[in-house]
Hints:
The protein is an alpha+beta fold. Helix content is 20%, strand content 36%. It is built from six helices and 18 strands.
Amino acid sequence: MNRVLFFKQAGKDMSADFTIRKNYRNDDCLRSSFNRLAEKTFNLNFENWYQNGFWNDDYNPYSVVMDGNVVSNVSVNRIDMMWGGEKKRLIQLGTVMTSEEYRGRGLIRTLMEEIERDYSGKCDGMFLFANDSVLDLYPRFGFQKADEYQYGKTVSNTSERSVINISMREKHNREVVMEAIRHNRSFYGFDMTDNIGLYMFYLSQFMEDNVYYSEKLKAYIAAQEDDDELFLHAVFAANPISLDEAIRAFGKSVRKVKLGFVPDKKEQYECSLLKEEDTTLFVKGKVLESFSDRKLLFPMLSRA
């Protein structure tokens, strides 16, 4: 869509030939401009994700464009979550950014209004993670702060290590992991589904050395290890296995486990309030009103 946007600067009403663009991932020029702004703002670049075929319709940047350049953006992530045996369509807003020279002109507000028009009544809820500098913005659009809770426990393993590390730099390994995600049997009480692209955003880039395979369990496991602590991000297996089996596969050196998701058997884990620096969760929609009371966590691999 094309429109003239108005803003105030130095006490004067001004206008400029800005346009709002969306669904433009196949436009090489705009995608490059989007990547430049994301790199400058967050040190992120989405080009490899696109070139590998993982950027699909589920991730849709809403951008203000001037003279062919992306100067402001709020991205929409469509995420289906299994919750209590039912699939819920959620919208995550992310990659919120504005070029320094265009800040203070209400461009993010304009994009938020556009997204509201497009998705009002078409999803079960929205959420986003905000930094401390914009905490006053999102309540204006009906968002409320919410708490997240993380699950973990102390373990005593006697098993020998049986997982092998697989490199996600290799195309074959990426393909078999994607197939495992497609046929995954959920182990979680609150689980992202049908969004391979978002999983691969992490597993093919920032965590390309953190994917393991267990031949015994026929499972692929995304995890990070720090001395005797295991951070379990995700388990993908077609047949039912317990999380304890996945943990034991990392061997007897593991003494503590933290989960990047909500386990299906929460009572077997210790639960603690998650505190992240410069990060506040905002939620909107009836389905998410009880999010904090239920002591939930958006899976770490669902965040964009």
